[in-house]
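Entry type: protein chain
Record version: 2
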Amino acid sequence: MLWGDYLKKLFMLILLAFVALIVLSACVSQSSKSVKVMETTASAQIPELFAEDVVSLQLLSGFPSVEGLKAFQQDNSNDFQQITKVIGWLNSAKLTHGETIIAKHGYPKTMQINFKNGIIAEIEPAYKCSITTNADGSGTKTCPQVENEVLLSYGSKYSWLKSPELYTWLQGGWKQDNSN
């Protein structure tokens, strides 16, 4: 009987260790994705988008404590005109090549587009990051925005796009369109 209790405890210990290993590997896998560096290529291009497939388009300030700046709804005719304009700019944007760190740099204005199929697209300014080594050996990372270029995440695809109209609209041009 003593030997049976020992085997049960050993089995439970091995099972617990196995479960812990699976949980830890999932955590490591998830954390490495949040700072993944990737190169956007033509294979990352998204499919053609249609304004009719959009449920809403939301502008976000980027600051954690600030709610969205403006929401455009498909069922509002004035909002739908803005959605159509944005989707047109996305479809006509030129795919460019750029290294992108998948994370926020400061608190940029971003745009979130909710599609009827459940996919959420996010658009933010594109950044070119560089690291310089200081005299004391430490490093300084700077990530200025790339004028007229945006980063689009659509599902699991990332595209670096050149679209002066979309970049300007995201930086505040939407306010003039919204004043009508």
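Comment: DSSP finds three helices and eleven strands in the chain.
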